[in-house]
Amino acid sequence: MNQPESALFDNAAHILDNFQIEIPSWGFANTGTRFGKFVQPAAASTLEEKFSDAAEVHRLTGATPTLALHVLWDLPRGLADVSEVQTLERRAGIRSGSINPNLFQDQQYKYGSLCNPSAEIRAGALQHVFDSIEIAKRLHARDISLWLADGSNYPGTQSIRKRIEWLQAGLNDAHRQLARDQRLLVEYKPFEPAFYHTDIADWGMSSQLCRAMGPQAFVLVDTGHHYLSQNIEQIVAWLLHLDLLGGFHFNDRRYADDDLTLGSIDPYQIFRIFHEICQHSQPSQSQNPLNRIAFMIDQSHNLKGKIEAMIQTVVTAQELWLKAALIDRDQLAVLQQSCDLVAAEELFRAAFWRDVRPLVAAWRESRRMAANPLAALQEGGYVERITRERASKQSAVSSYA
Known about the structure:
This protein is of the alpha/beta class.
């Protein structure tokens, strides 16, 4: 904290240079809740428009070089759409990020996908995962991000034990399909859409499934997928300890899986999570274990402007990451060891309350970006232009995506 100003800036610049966060294609589209959507005229309705919006966010923030893709929504023809994606990558200067299978939207998944009592439906769901892995191979995407809506609503209506066996068998088969440089990230969620039990309800279940699969399977933590008051940073610490933390879906929530912009409700929680990760390695180094942790956004901007909300989240993530990375951990360790509770907490809190915005703005300007991305977006006219171009293509629809 007592570094000379130039040394502090150099350290902050290294930290920010090495921080990247992946943005989701669906964050630019018209999404909503189970009750419906409110359509926005500037929302992207094609994959080309999603890549264009992603490029604008990266241009303004310098931290989002990859775009997460959803197979059903972005590649509806599966492997046949890969060449189009590759063309869009070259045109936008944005790479494909994690590949997300869809095992929840088709009518056949009413009673589950990989856990469905029907062997035929389980086989079809597994083939979709295989196809998603192949899409990732062709797009040189490292991660396949898997979330299952599988579960049941009433006691006694399903065999939980059988579903565990079907799930583990299917995931083991999927793991065997991975290329050497690929990973399967397994997400968990305690409830919704199933409300009696979900087949992967918490990090312990996800961890066990990953360990049984093999060395290329890791846990994915969605910050919205926890009960109220859950200590998420403790889960992160355990997954780091077990070498099972694969990545995050970042968002914020007030009650449950609200998919709000990062830090809009509880920025201190994200700071605490980042602190646990920064303790694991040095975020100012480009070659370190942190590169294995995928930082990804998963949000539903059903009221906020799509691009504005995405920039808000990215900027917030950059600032909170820098705050956590600049903690004086040597001094904190001394205070923790001596159980000096007040001094340790005050050091920790001071790092959170530190205003790093001038540092981040100076870093942007040194990298030939605007100091204020949101202001630059407004001044640049991009949103106004796409609103004019896209408004006539928008139509009221009732589905989530």
